[in-house]
Design a protein that fits this description.
Helix content: 10-25%
Strand order of the largest sheet: 12-11-10-9-13
Number of strands: 15
Oligomer: single chain
Number of helices: 7
Structural class: alpha+beta
Largest sheet: 5 strands, antiparallel
Length: 295
């Protein structure tokens, strides 16, 4: 699939900010065998005094920007064309969940995709005994890692209601779990905590969903803004598998990856600080349009 993607993020400040420093992660990445960024640009208004392109630890593209002059509005526009390749169907060769720890211990790599980075606590995801109990209610003896993850994905989709008013970007996973309501970020954080409590390495994927569904298909939840789903390690044979609990599906050609991380803190589209007081209002608009390809 070939997509044209447009993203706009707007910040309106109650009072002019006298300066600011931000990290922006919104450009899709190229992933061998999965997707290719053909062309892309990120426009920022007002023009920052300094701008530097970097690659973070998890190999996500980012821009570091610095403002020195006062401004009452910040606009970030991203345009990209991305080719997403269909993945080959892969049988479940993941080990039984009770044997996964040995496979993790046998992995000596500390590269960005190593499962060791995704097993313990991360900045936004502490242990949650209530979520651990929930996970254990899904995992039965003898199930493979992939079976457990798929069952947990389906259970969250069934038990939780998609509600953009229920939570904020800072809602802890335990609060979202008790509400059984939220958005993709909440579903993903709950599922990551649940998987890690079972000893399954799991991380956060930030990206986009196609805005226009294929003929005869329903529109996916979360397509109006940047989306999120889960990445879990299924052992050395199957490797990393991506599941979308918001829509109860495996990530496929409808999903375009921007970044990988341990939780939202590692892949937030915009983070930073400003010198100001008062509040800010944020708007986000996403358009992911399939490009008609001719022979």
């Amino acid at each position: 699939m070939l997509y044209d993607i447009n993203l706009r993020i707007e910040y309106d400040y109650d009072f002019p900010v006298s300066g600011g420093r931000h990290m922006v992660r919104v450009l899709p990445r190229s992933i061998a065998g999965r997707q290719r960024l053909i062309a892309g640009s990120v426009g920022i208004r007002p023009q920052p005094a300094e701008r530097t392109g970097v690659i973070d630890f998890f190999e996500n593209q980012a821009a570091l920007i610095l403002f020195r002059n006062a401004h009452d509005r910040l606009e970030i526009d991203m345009q990209a064309r991305v080719q997403v390749d269909a993945a080959n169907a892969q049988p479940d060769f993941s080990p039984p969940i009770g044997e996964l720890s040995r496979a993790i211990a046998a992995c000596w790599s500390l590269a960005p995709a190593s499962p060791h980075h995704f097993t313990g606590h991360s900045p936004r995801l502490p242990d949650c005994p209530e979520i651990s109990d929930y996970a254990r209610s899904v995992a039965a003896a003898g199930m493979t890692v992939r079976e457990v993850a798929s069952s947990l994905c389906a259970r969250i989709h069934k038990d939780f209601t998609y509600d953009v008013e229920a939570t904020t970007v800072d809602t802890p996973p335990l609060e979202a779990f008790r509400l059984k309501r939220g958005v993709c970020q909440d579903f993903v954080h709950v599922m990551i905590v649940a998987l890690r409590s079972l000893g399954i390495p799991a991380g956060y994927v930030s990206g986009f969903l196609r805005t226009i569904p294929p003929p005869g298909k329903e529109r996916l939840e979360g397509a109006d803004a940047m989306h999120a789903w889960v990445r879990l390690w299924c052992g050395p044979t199957n490797g990393w598998v991506e599941l979308d609990p918001t829509n109860n599906m495996q990530a496929g050609t409808d999903h375009i990856v921007v970044g990988y991380g341990r939780d939202y803190a590692d892949v937030a589209p915009v983070i930073g600080i400003v010198k100001s007081y008062g509040q800010q209002q944020t708007k986000q608009a996403v358009d992911v349009v399939p490009v008609r390809q001719t022979a």
